[in-house]
Write a structure and sequence with these properties.
24% of the residues are buried. A hairpin with a 3-residue loop joins β19 and β20. By secondary structure, the chain is mainly β. The strands form five sheets. Strands 4, 7, 11, 12, 14, 16 and 18 form a seven-stranded mixed sheet that branches. Strands 13-20-19-15-17 form a five-stranded mixed sheet, with no helix packed on it. The termini are far apart. It is built from no helices and 20 strands. 0% of the residues lie in helices and 60% in strands.
C-alpha cells in the first residue's frame, strides 16, 4: 500500500485507520500515524530600509530571495506590501522543496515623513506566514511667496520672493519654477530658474513685468509653480492700475 500526499495537503500528523474485511464477515482494523511535513521558507533579509526618497518618485528595487528548505511545496496564497511600497516577483504558485524565487521591493512614498509596514508572504494551506519589515522616509517640499499681494502701475514691475522649504528631510532634487495665470502682456522672471532645497531650503527673486500698452487694468491671481517629482504651488495677487497718462 502506498499513501501519497498532494501539494495542497495540509502539513500535520494524522491518524490513519486501515480496515480489512473477509467474505466470512470478519473485519480487521489497524491504525498508524502519518506525519506530513510542512514547508519552511528562509528569507535573505528580515528588514529593508530606504533612505530619503522624494514623494512622487520610486527608489530602485531591493531583492529578497526565498528558499524552501522544508519537506513540502510552499503554496503562495498572497504576497503583499503596505502603502508606499511595491513588489514584483518571479515566484510560482507553489514553490518546490529546495527551490528559490525572488521578490523585488521598491519604495515610492505618497507623503513626506516616516513610512513603515511589512512585506507579507502567506501560505494558507499550511497556515504559514512570513514577513520582512519595511521602512523608509518620504521627503517633499513646499513653495511660498512674499508678499502675498502687490499693486503695480502698468508698464512697471512688481517683485516677490519665492521660498522653497524641504519637508521630512533633505530634498536633494532640483525644483524648477514657472508661472500661470498671467494676463496678456505680462511676464514673470526668476533670478534662478531652478534650486536645490537640500536641508536648509532656498529662495529666489520673482519679477512680474507688465506691458504698458497691452495689460488691462484689473486684479489677477497668479500661480507660482515649483516642479520636481511632485509639483507644489503658491498664489499671489497682482493688481494692475492705470497711470495718469494711460
Amino acid at each position: 500500500m502506498t499513501i501519497a500526499s498532494q501539494s495542497l495537503a495540509v502539513g500535520g500528523t494524522y491518524s490513519i485507520t486501515i480496515t480489512g474485511g473477509t467474505s466470512f464477515g470478519r473485519t480487521n482494523v489497524s491504525q498508524f500515524q502519518l506525519t506530513i511535513l510542512k514547508p519552511s521558507i528562509v528569507l535573505s533579509a528580515s528588514s529593508l530600509n530606504y533612505p530619503f526618497q522624494a514623494v512622487g518618485s520610486t527608489s530602485s528595487g531591493t531583492n529578497v530571495t526565498l528558499i524552501n528548505n522544508g519537506a513540502g511545496p510552499f503554496n503562495f496564497t498572497s504576497i503583499a506590501t503596505p502603502t508606499s511600497f511595491t513588489q514584483t516577483n518571479n515566484c510560482p504558485s507553489a514553490l518546490a522543496v529546495n527551490s528559490s524565487c525572488s521578490l523585488n521591493v521598491a519604495f515610492g512614498p505618497v507623503a513626506y515623513g516616516q513610512a513603515s509596514g511589512g512585506l507579507s508572504i502567506q501560505d494558507n494551506v499550511d497556515g504559514l506566514f512570513y514577513s520582512v519589515a519595511l521602512g523608509g522616509v518620504g521627503v517633499d517640499f513646499s513653495v511660498s511667496t512674499s508678499p502675498a499681494a502687490a499693486t503695480v502701475v502698468r508698464g512697471n514691475s512688481a517683485g516677490f520672493i519665492v521660498s522653497v522649504s524641504p519637508l521630512g528631510g533633505p530634498y536633494a532634487k532640483s525644483v524648477a519654477f514657472s508661472c500661470s495665470g498671467l494676463p496678456a502682456g505680462a511676464a514673470c522672471a526668476f533670478s534662478s530658474q531652478a534650486v536645490l532645497p537640500d536641508s536648509s531650503g532656498s529662495a529666489v527673486n520673482l519679477t512680474i513685468t507688465t506691458d504698458q500698452k497691452v495689460v488691462l487694468p484689473g486684479t489677477y491671481l497668479i500661480t507660482v509653480l515649483g516642479g520636481s517629482s511632485a509639483t507644489h504651488t503658491s498664489q499671489i495677487q497682482v493688481t494692475v492700475t492705470k497711470n495718469k497718462s494711460n
